[in-house]
Automatic annotation (TrEMBL):
It catalyses: 6-phospho-D-glucono-1,5-lactone + H2O = 6-phospho-D-gluconate + H(+). This is 6-phosphogluconolactonase. Belongs to the glucosamine/galactosamine-6-phosphate isomerase family. 6-phosphogluconolactonase subfamily. Residues 11-221 form the Glucosamine/galactosamine-6-phosphate isomerase domain. The lineage of its organism: Bacteria, Pseudomonadati, Pseudomonadota, Alphaproteobacteria, Hyphomicrobiales. Its EC number is 3.1.1.31.
Length: 232
């Protein structure tokens, strides 16, 4: 599918516009189907976007927020994406939203992934909104180069699910939605900032090898158009 680049003068302008666009998509979903779902990424990039989105007026109590991926740590761990979203997004108007965590205090990451898959199956599919980030190694979600389950994660013949991923660049064991669970979102966004990530994006757009740069799966094979949001 195609990708469209939306360029902004700075991160604040990007955050304001992306928050308004996402809020409109969530409101349209609630109007059409009585509920909405959004999966967001962790990391440092989305904080300003989360803050702006938290202030958008919509029927947040009908919106389920979940994570594209999660580190296999409890919500009180500083590395937790649940903690990041609880701190920066689930506040102000958005405090009324439902939250679906990927982490649970299971005996193993595999068991936590199975639990999260079951919980996510209760959500209407596809996601209304998915907001992806990208690392300088070309990963997105927890689709890391060299990931132990990367091929399965990117295999569209496999069902949407939450699965585990381990990779040199990932730190802790990760829990991540599969590509099949993310790629058909009604609004599919790739949010990156800075010159270095723009260079990484341009390299990704210029090639096909998904093992080298897993974000290429999103750029080249997503069923939905990819809205790229970038600011210097
Ligand atoms: O759990 C995570 O870390 C994210 O889901 C990950 O995919 C993130 O989007 C990129 O690593 C970019 O992170 P930064 O925004 O911090 O550069």
């Amino acid at each position: 599918m195609t990708s469209k680049e939306n360029t902004f003068e700075n991160g604040a302008a990007l955050a304001t516009t992306l928050a308004a666009t996402v809020a409109a998509a969530l409101s349209a979903a609630v109007a059409a189907r009585g509920e909405a779902s959004i999966a967001v990424s962790g990391g440092s990039t989305p904080k300003a976007f989360f803050d702006a989105l938290s202030r958008e007026a919509l029927d947040w109590e009908k919106v389920t927020v979940t994570l594209v991926d999660e580190r296999f740590v409890p919500a009180d761990n500083p590395r937790s994406n649940h903690l990041l979203v609880a701190t920066h997004l689930l506040k102000n108007a958005a405090a009324k939203a439902r939250f679906l965590p990927l982490f649970s205090a299971a005996d193993s990451a595999e068991e936590a992934a199975e639990r999260a898959t079951e919980a996510a199956a209760a959500l209407a599919q596809p996601f209304d909104v998915v907001v992806l980030g990208m690392g300088n190694d070309g990963h997105t979600a927890s689709f890391f180069p060299g990931g132990n389950h990367l091929a399965e994660a990117l295999d569209l013949s496999l069902p949407r699910r939450v699965m585990t991923m381990e990779a040199e660049g990932a730190g802790e064991t990760r829990l991540t939605f599969s590509f099949s669970g993310l790629q058909d979102a009604r609004l599919l966004v790739l949010h990156i900032e800075g010159a270095e990530k723009k260079a990484v994006l341009d390299k990704a757009l210029a090639g096909k090898d998904e093992a080298e740069m897993p974000v290429r799966a999103v750029l080249n094979r997503a069923a939905s158009p990819v809205e790229i949001y970038w600011a210097p």
